[in-house]
Amino acid sequence: MKTLFLKLCPNCGGEIDDVSLALGVPCRRCLQLPIEEILELKNSLDRYNFVKFIYERLRSLGTLKHYEKIYRLEEETRQFNEYYKKLFGNDMWAPQRSWLKRYLLGKSFSIVAPTGLGKTTFGIFLALHEAAKGKKVYIIAPTTVLLLQTYERLLHFREQLGFEVEIACYHARLSSKEKLEAREKIASGEFDILLTTSQYLSTSFNTLEGKKFDLIFVDDVDALLKASKNVDKVLQLLGFDKEIIQKAFNYLKLLIFSPEKENEIEQLRKEIEEYKSKHKERLGQLIVASATGRQRGLRSRLFKVLLDFEAGSSRGELRKIVDSYVLADNVETAVLELVRLLGSGGLVFVRRGLGAEKLEELAAKISSLGLKAAAIYSGKPRYHELLEKFRNGEIDVLVGVATFYGTLVRGLDMPERIRYAVFYGVPVIEIRTDLENITPSKLFVLANLLIGKLPKEIETKILSRISKLKKWMAPDVVKKIQQCLEEGKQLEGFLKKVWDEYCAVVNELKELLKSEDILAALQQDPYISCRKLSEHVLELLVPDIKTYIQASGRTSRLYAGGITLGLSVVVDSDPKLVQALGRLLSLRYEDARLVPFSELNLQELLKKIDEDRKRAKAVLEGKIDEVELPQLKVTLFVVESPNKARTIASFFGRPSRLRVGLANFYEVTTGNRILIITASGGHVYDLVTRRGIYGVEKHGEKFIPVYCSIKINKETGESYTDQEVEGEIVDKQEVVQALQEMALTVDEVIVGTDFDTEGEKIGWDLALSLSPYVHRIYRAIFTEVTRSAILKALEELRTHDERWVEAQLVRRIEDRWIGFSLSQKLWKVFGKHWLSAGRVQTPVLGWIIQRYKEHLASRRWFIGLLLENGTFLVLQNVYGKTKEEAENLLKQLENNELIIERVELEEKEVLPPRPYTTDLLLRDACRRLKLSAEEVMQLAQDLFELSLITYHRTDSCRVSSAGIEVAKEYILQRFGEQYFVPRKWGTGGAHEAIRPVRPLDAETLVRMLQEGVLQTVQPLTRRHIKLYDLIFRRFIASQMAPAKVVEARAVLRLPTGHEEVLQGIVEIRDPSFLQLYDPGLQQLPVPVQEGARLKIVKARTWLDSPVQLYTQADIIRLMREKEIGRPSTYARIVATILRRKYVIETKKKELVPTQLGMQVYEYLTSNYHSMVSEERTRELEKKMLAIEEGKLYYQQVIRETFEEILPLLKELGVVSESEGKQEYS
Question: Of 251, 383, 424, 951, which residue is the catalytic one?
Fold first, then answer.
């Protein structure tokens, strides 16, 4: 046993130890079984039988309480599964079990799952099962065809199961008489299950109004949302009254359009939550399946407000595509040859603007090759029939337009059929530089293309106005602007304001684009293709990456067996466009590369593609049993930060969202997992204060810490555990309870907290708290938040490192004992209850005090000279001990000359710096960006969570092979191969240096964000970009060749007879990495000419010290050098010293101790030197490392710490004399 947790027993809700939690059972008082027996049972029984055994044991002892909920859920799932097996002959699939458990827990939710996984089957079966129990169910289908299929299956299932269930069905193919009878049946409520289309709900709600359904299953929520009022109707049918629906709608409007009305918003939120809580038992449940997960208007968000979920999509960012290209002078000939070679199951996308005739012509030419081809485009009659013929193999190839909303580009989901896509030209966005009828979307693209090509002041002004326009340009506003452009329609009010600003920006850009310099810069851009339309007008062509991704994505689809492999081939004659497309693709997906088609092993690739199609076809036809498919698991993935959770979810499409209590869950599909991602919000448990010694009890020979959930005061932000607190409190136990409820519905939990001892302890706490609710729990490790890193981590699972956890337990206990005991002494002595002390912060405070004393002791009168060349030279060897002495020197220097006596030149190689570790980043960012250490760490945390840099708490400067590839791509592209010198900078270890995860410099990053090619879940500020720029430049520099410079050493003779020696760079012969990163090289401030004389224009003196006061950057350097603190604590320690007012920061960012700081330090070092000495602190850090490495038993270190502070504990009355001798001896 390592720890005790309060209020965490899954049965009685009381105290429980980590051993019982790890086994997934109630506390020892409830269960009364030896640990060895429990372990044997857990290893021999499956989940259901193990839970059943625990349940029956508790019931027989008379101790059964909350564990009954866990058992009942497993039992009801088992019973439901028996019916399912009776009908289908096999068990439910894992996702179906998960959906069922969510339903049984009373949740409304959106189903996210690949094609062929039985979403509709589940809905039909659940409807029958619940109707047989006396519940009213409504199934809403998108079309009559699907409705009839559902109806037939309902009747068949009902007969097979022998359920006496009355079904009412209304559809367009009924006769007039049958329609009348169906309407009467619906109006009278003489049914258990109602089945209609979403169209019926829109047009015939009068027959349904006033009725209440226990369950509504919507087979395609996208069809339902086409009429926004359907949302209100569904909510009414679930039991919500019109008044609360309107309040929820008002709440949404305020939240989006008037967020400043905080009080009104909060009042409405409380009313809505009270209503939901009061009417929880009578409200029905909604389950929806979604194709796109798109929000349509404000009303669709009512589901989020009233039912705590948002629809999502299983499609989107998932792609397994070989992206290739062919450069050809005759594009059409190359396209035809490719189609002939690749055969049936292809899509051909033609660049916009060639017209329907060209599509038909190309389809005819493909047909002449012996393949049946058809052109598909908007307005083509009966194109749905052609799509169906393509699906069943009667047509081999479809030809369409490469436009984002094109018929073939969106909504075509045929994993069993589509093998490849060929692009007749790179899909492009075309922009004329005379801006003739330019649309808003093209204007925004143009603005990004002009970054770096306009004068800086003008660029800043233009981008600011563009940013404002983007905020105003909601979809309906864009539509109105386009109508103005096409029809000259007049606008009023706000729309006129937008139109006027739009026209003003367009006119300003028109004038700028008349500049030959700007046009030349556009033509020289390696990623813009230009056509000359006239002497002063260009047409700019840039890849339409969104259309390419969407169109090529038709070849790689998600289905119940995984993701199909697809092939995409782009054919173009313009290498610039191909290169630009490849760059944009690799920036969007870190593992995507556009490769020459000629380099592909086509035979092997097509074999894999065809195997996937064969498998997908069998799955969709129901010919493969579950056992032959990859086991699709439902996984709860817990990370620390909400930003990180949202970022990870965004890698896999548009997530479905579910809110349970205080936690948000984002559901996506990765191919072999349905992944439900959530965040703990950091630590959830901390030491109590009222038990044992400041929260640590003695059990036999062991010290056992007692933990309970953290409570946070919403107003002050302060956190507590077991103290009594006034005000509104957020209890982290509510987050844990939400996670526990979701854990009940999944196959496994994976904990992905940060990869350090603190993250390991957070993850361990979470794993223990969830263990009774799920069968399997794993740990995932990743040091960058990228799609490939997450997928790799999910495949390389491990358990928590107990040694790291033990090290963190020691650290926390030691912090608590030293901090609480010394702080209480400070309170008594100084009468200030906000003072604190710590083993690390005290030596750090001492360094600042010592430096301050040295600074004062060495003050002198410095002399500076303004020379005729404009240089201001601070003399190092000439100064005054007194002001009078300095003034006498000034008289000798002013209006005189200095002579350059000797100059020595030397050519030197300047090696690039190593990449950043935490301490180096803090030092550089504090100094260069004028940020505090705490600010730097928060910004770096954001950049890490937003998938822009690797993990930022690291003391390793090692560069992985993936990192070297990032640098290689950027350096080769920007500077050339001669400047690339790969360096690992270290060996071994899981951590690596802080580096960017993509070959994206800051300027390109900003452009990608503005274009929407890259999207982050949190907006980036200028400070984020500046810090990213610093990290990027330093890292790329670390992989470049040394620079070659000429350094000079100049000896100056002063009029006073003194010599000054200056050193500095006089020439850069090969700049190499200096083009990116300035390591702080000093230029020689005087001419390189022996005998040269420089007139002294002015001389002045001031009082200062050669011993500079420390900055935050200096303190962090010292902490690293003296091995005190860790990367995760550097910033926190400095922040604590400043917050306690022991130190203040000057305008120059220098640290000066306060009187209070000096008094506290004097008191602590005089009375408790051994506890707070630098040597003792460093020794303890080494012991922590030894614990992590398994070289030292953690209890031994806790005992040593206890013995060290025992006299102080007795002095404070925390431990009595007798206790100290007996219980704690």
Answer: 951
